[in-house]
Amino acid sequence: MRKTLSRALFATTVAAAALGLAATSASATALAGWTVSNPTAGGGFTAALKAGTSATLVDTTTGQQVDCSVSPASGTAPSGTYASGAGLAKITGVTWGSAASPCPGPLGSSFTASLAPGAVISIDASSYSGGISSGVLSGVKVNLVGDTILGTCNAVISGTVSNVTYNNATGELAINTGTGLKVDSATNCAGLLNAGDSATFKATYKVANPISITYA
Question: DSSP secondary structure string, the chain?
Answer without folding.
Answer: -HHHHHHHHHHHHHHHHHHHHHHHHHHHHHH--EEEE--SGGGEEEEEEPTT--EEEEETTT--EEEES---EEEE---EEESS-TTSEEEEEEEE--SSSPEE-GGG-EEEEEEPTT--EEEEEEEEETTEEEEEEEEEEEEEEEEETTEEEEEEEEEEEEEEEEETTTTEEEEEEEEEEEEEEEES-TTSS-TT-EEEEEEEEEESS--EEEE-
